[in-house]
Design goal:
Layout: H1 2-25, H2 33-37, E1 43-45, H3 59-70, E2 74-79, H4 99-105, H5 107-114, E3 119-124, H6 152-172, E4 179-183, H7 188-191, H8 203-226, E5 233-240, H9 243-248, H10 259-263, E6 267-271, H11 273-276, H12 282-298, E7 312-317, H13 326-343, E8 348-350, H14 379-402, H15 408-415
Parallel strand pairs: 1-8, 2-3, 3-4, 4-5, 5-6, 6-7, 7-8
Helix pairs in contact: 4-5, 6-8, 12-13
Length: 423
């Protein structure tokens, strides 16, 4: 009996060892869940200067959570000295004297940076360039110092602050997989701070803006070169908005045909209202938007160290409710999404989650929104939400069939067939 038990034990040990060897040699099935959640789903939105909220959370945190709840993994917001005034109304903290301070000392800013968004588009304006405005006033020249020339002391301070902030992002978010795009709001209003698009640009201001953008690009590049980092990225972009002006009259100096070419930034953002809102048919919008995207791309030259793909995206588009009913707002938005996907732009960002514009004489909400001031989700909100569901379903099935993620061209061509984009 003892001999039988001993033999049985030996057999069991043998089979257990064989089983362990088999399990060791057998490749484990990869868990794709994180990569599916972090895929670039292209469409998204942003939050700046909203005029209402519904919870006890700060404006910034509430709107970031709404963007996340809609299904997006991208957050676009603003980091600048106006964090405590018109942008988000956060408490003023006199200890905050730089972008890095804002990221580390302001609780709401820190909270949204730590949220599980993959992509961050950030309007980045330095404290070292800011002159406080009188209470209740807003002057964009207060946060840029290149109007009529760019003094050396501001150039040096700009480089230092952007370098420091980039270094912080690379080190603090090491291994997170996050991608940060640091850029500016509609650059043509920096070139023409009086908002007169017909007036010739001041040559000193143009020269100053080129230098400003070059310094921002160099500070980011130098910080990346000087800082060991992995699985986190920081890039620089320039946003243009008067692109049709450059196409229609090559002698007009705008960001699209002057600053971009001189700087060759990592990416270009297009605030695209001049190629979307004037046109009454889908065919006309499609034609003019693609023409403008291609013009912007033509101003760039090849650049090493960037991911494959196109370098021009839609930073803003939108159709306000005071001009369009809900269905038309959605329909025109879908026109923009489809034209941009066809062209191949990597991001298409709707303006915005909550409306930020109120008519001064009537107090009426202009209606650049996905969720209204009454808490109503617009049809275009549901278009985004359904798009994300269809996109994740497609990518999950693609991974199961091919054991890899689809490349962007495969995704965008399939996305054009989504039911969420059918009209």
């Amino acid at each position: 009996m003892k001999r039988l038990l001993k033999l049985t034990a030996i057999v069991l040990v043998f089979f257990a060892a064989c089983s362990m060897m088999f399990m060791k040699d057998k490749p484990r099935k990869k868990d794709w869940a994180a990569e599916i959640n972090n895929y670039n789903y292209v469409i998204g939105t942003q939050t700046v200067g909203s005029k209402y909220k519904f919870s006890e959370k700060t404006m910034l945190v509430e709107t970031a959570l709404e963007i996340k709840n809609m299904g997006s993994n991208l957050l676009k917001f603003s980091m600048n000295p106006r964090y405590c005034t018109e942008n988000y109304g956060l408490p003023k903290n006199d200890k905050i004297q730089s972008l890095t301070d804002l990221a580390t000392l302001e609780p709401s800013v820190k909270e949204v940076l730590d949220m599980d968004f993959k992509y961050y588009h950030i309007w980045t304006y330095c404290f070292s360039q800011y002159t406080p405005e009188p209470p209740g006033t807003k002057d964009d020249t207060a946060q840029i110092k290149f109007i009529d020339g760019f003094p050396k002391k501001y150039q040096e301070a700009l480089y230092k602050e952007i370098f420091e902030f980039t270094t912080y992002l690379l080190t603090h978010f090491e291994g997170s997989g996050k991608v940060f795009y640091l850029g500016n709001w509609e650059g043509d209003w920096h070139l023409r701070p009086d908002y007169d698009r017909d007036k010739p640009v001041n040559p000193k201001t143009l020269k100053g803006m080129i230098k400003w953008a070059q310094i921002r690009q160099k500070a980011i590049d130098d910080a990346k070169q000087a800082t060991q980092h992995s699985n986190v990225e920081v890039y620089h972009y320039i946003e243009a908005n008067l692109v049709r002006k450059a196409i229609n009259n090559s002698r007009s100096k705008v960001v699209a045909n002057s600053v971009i070419k001189a700087v060759n930034p990592d990416y270009v953002s297009y605030s695209s209202y001049d190629s979307t809102n004037p046109y009454k048919t889908e065919a006309s919008l499609n034609k003019h938007l693609k023409e403008s995207l291609s013009f912007l791309e033509s101003q760039l030259t090849p650049k090493e160290g960037l991911p494959a793909g196109r370098r021009v995206w839609i930073g803003e588009y939108g159709n306000p409710s005071n001009n369009y009913d809900d269905d038309e707002q959605n329909r025109r938005s879908v026109w923009t999404i489809k034209a941009s996907l066809e062209w191949g732009t990597p991001f298409i960002l709707y303006w915005e989650m909550y409306n930020n514009e109120i008519k001064p004489n009537t107090g009426e909400q202009v209606g650049y929104w996905l969720i209204t001031d009454k808490g109503k989700k617009q049809p275009i909100w549901y278009t985004h939400n359904e798009f994300y569901k269809e996109a994740k379903h497609f990518i999950k099935n693609y991974v199961e069939d091919h054991n890899k993620l689809p490349d962007y061209d495969t995704f965008r061509k399939h996305a054009l067939k989504f039911k969420s984009l059918s009209l």
